[in-house]
Amino acid sequence: MSSASASEPETGEILPDWVRPIVKESLSERAYRELRVALMRGQLRPDTRLRLRPMSARFGISATPMREALLRLVSEKALALDARGSVVVPRLALDQLLEIRAIRTDLEGRAAAAAIASTAAEIDALEAIHAQISQCHASRDFARAVNLNTEFHLSLCRLGGMPILYEIVKLLWVRCGPILSHLYDDGVPDWEPHPHRRIIDALRHGDSDAARDAVREDIERGGSGLFAHVRASPAG
């Protein structure tokens, strides 16, 4: 009896056409993922032009996989093409920012309410992220503060234990991350107590309503300065 072919399992059942061997992550996929993270963490500001040759050199890959990664993000509206066909980080319009804020408030509030089931160690880790943000405020390292703010919010959403919600929230952060790079344009906000502290306290006390309210306060306070920035910009 002949042995089963590579395309057949031991039962002899023919695998469907869509089944393909698992291969190592492609260069294009790696560039795509790293760019996506950079967008989420506010490391790429609105209107930044991403030229193919410099980007390829920076990632240490050829033009073809770099182009594939950029155009994939364009298709997802995370990046855009300007009038000259160059890839740029898009600038959110005011109505887009308002819509994203409303959806984030709902979804991140739901995640925070569910996160009251977190362990003490998980809440401690969240508190440690906020402590680093406070240190960045003191040293005026605002770029790192924006990065850590993203980490705080996404970590909170992970603690909610809702994977589908978490993936949707990440998509929102890909879109709004660049504008959040302007969060500290006017310096450190005078927020005492900081809404992050209220979130952490609510989780420790198992108060889902307080956790949801603190998230709403955080998103609304941060958004007020960003709205002023968008209104003052040429595209706003």
UniProtKB/TrEMBL annotation:
Among the GO molecular function terms of this UniProt record, one is: DNA binding
Domain of life from the UniProt record: Bacteria
Q: Which residues form the HTH gntR-type domain?
A: 25-91
Keywords on record? DNA-binding, Transcription, Transcription regulation
| A Pfam family annotated for this UniProt entry | FCD
What protein does this entry describe? DNA-binding transcriptional regulator, GntR family
